[in-house]
Amino acid sequence: MEFWFTEKQTKDFGITMRVKQTYHSEKTEFQQLDMVETAEFGNMLLLDGMVMTTERDEFVYHEMVAHVPLYTHPNPRHVLVVGGGDGGVIREILKHPEVEKATLVDIDGKVIEYSKKYLPTIAGKLEDPRVEVKVDDGFMHIAESENAYDVIMVDSTEPVGPAVNLFTKGFYEGISKALKEDGLFVAQTDNPWFHQDVIRKAFKDVKETFPVTRLYTANIPTYPSGLWTFTMGSKKYDPLETPEERFGNIDTKYYTPEIHRGAFLLPKFVKDLTE
User: Fold this and answer.
1) Which strands make up the sheet holding 14-27, listed edge to edge?
2) Nearest-angstrom CA–CA distance, 245 and 248
3) Facing residues of 80 across strands?
4) Measured in whole angstroms, how far is the alpha carbon of residue 99 from the centre of its chain?
5) Active site residue ranges
6) Which candidate, 114, 113, 42, 53, places its Cα nearest to that of 88?
7) Are 42 and 57 in contact (CB under 8 A)?
8) Longest distance between any two alpha carbons in the chain, whole Å
């Protein structure tokens, strides 16, 4: 008998895939965590029934969260990741030699624990000496930080459960305070097919907080609709003005200097959400 998992991305639409086995299922202090092996996308992390990452397509999300801001900022020495307990963004950050320290703050230590066990190609750099891992509330960590980071990356779930506070104007204002005078941040801001309201509100709130605000996209097959957005808020640097000589020769599967620029070219219905 075959077992199929369906993520209901709206009440009328979902994505389904065949599951070969379930490694772990647990109701943590914060959310339902499931680690499964799928036939099409390999090992997969699910939180509250939503796909967080898979072995097959994870590189798109993690590269686009990390490399766009790290190449936009000319000297990103101290970097913070809020969420991201699977370790994928940390892995990509460490490809930048100028980064002296990367701090990961995730509220749910179980995500970190089981990602290390079942997603070693994603979480394998969490033990790196340049990395500090904190099991803590990212919202409060931001609120208690000031002038501490060059770049902040918000690698959260969708705005449900413990991630709700990470989509508020107060959080973006806290990020501005936690950044240095020329700092910048990036947050995942959902998809433009089913959650236009999330993008519209996030972009508006960030734009009211940062002088430079940009929206960019990437294609991630296992995320709702496959088209995903990211919002950047910057105190000084514009990702569209990143000089050619700043791009380094790092190992990627999705990100390129051309993608860095092209990702900001938005379909009209997406661009309309920023106006």
Assistant:
1) 3-8, 14-27, 32-38, 42-47, 50-54
2) 8
3) 103, 152
4) 18
5) 155
6) 53
7) no
8) 58
Q: What is the Cα gyration radius of the chain? A: 18
What contacts 173, CB < 8 A, 6 or more positions away?
209
Q: What structural domains and CATH numbers belong to the chain?
A: 3-53 (2.30.140.10), 58-238+253-274 (3.40.50.150)
Confidence of residue 167 (pLDDT cuts 50, 70, 90): confident
Q: What is the pLDDT of residues 185-197, one digit of tens each?
A: 999 999 999 999 9
What is the number of other CB atoms lying within 10 angstroms of the CB of residue 58?
25
Angle between helices 196-207 and 169-178 (to 10 degrees): 40
Q: What is the pLDDT of residues 9-24, one digit of tens each?
A: 889 999 999 999 999 9
Give the number of other Cβ atoms within 10 Å of residue 72's Cβ.
Answer: 24
pLDDT, one tens digit per residue, over 118-134 is 999 999 999 999 999 99
Q: What's the rounded Cα separation, in Å, for the pair 99 and 212?
A: 23
Which two three-digit tokens encode residue 191? Answer: 């998809």
| Beta pairing partners, 179 | 149
d(CA 95, CA 79): 13
Any residues with CB less than 8 A from the CB of 98 and at least 6 apart, and which? 75, 76, 77
Residue 157 has pLDDT above 90, yes or no: no
pLDDT reading at 163 higher than 70: no
